[in-house]
Amino acid sequence: MAAGYLSHLAGNTIEVRSAGSAPVDSINAVVVEAMLEEGIDISDQKPKILTTDAIQASDVVITMGCGDACPLFPGKRYLDWKLDNPAGEGLDAVRTIRRKIRQRIEVLLLNFGLRADGT
């Protein structure tokens, strides 16, 4: 959801990478449905494993509780977002998680001097 929002709201101003320390085989169908409600289609995305190369190529790394599984590199900005996991949750719970993610993405964009319309 975070990568979907960031890509949608920042447009071409930010290169977005999304990966996890223990990715599942496919994206949660309820998450896809919740994002479609926002006009964001993430159904073509595939979960990917977090690699050292991806972190080294990034300026900001947003983690969601991966702990020691996420390598740390000097000079990178790390943000750890404590959020509920949408796995096994219904649409109402996923909407709540979605709202919290959008709020954090909007603040992140403001911190980089960007508005949520990519300008």
From TrEMBL:
Keywords: Arsenical resistance. One of its GO terms (biological process) is response to arsenic-containing substance. Residues 1-111 form the Phosphotyrosine protein phosphatase I domain. This is Protein arsC.
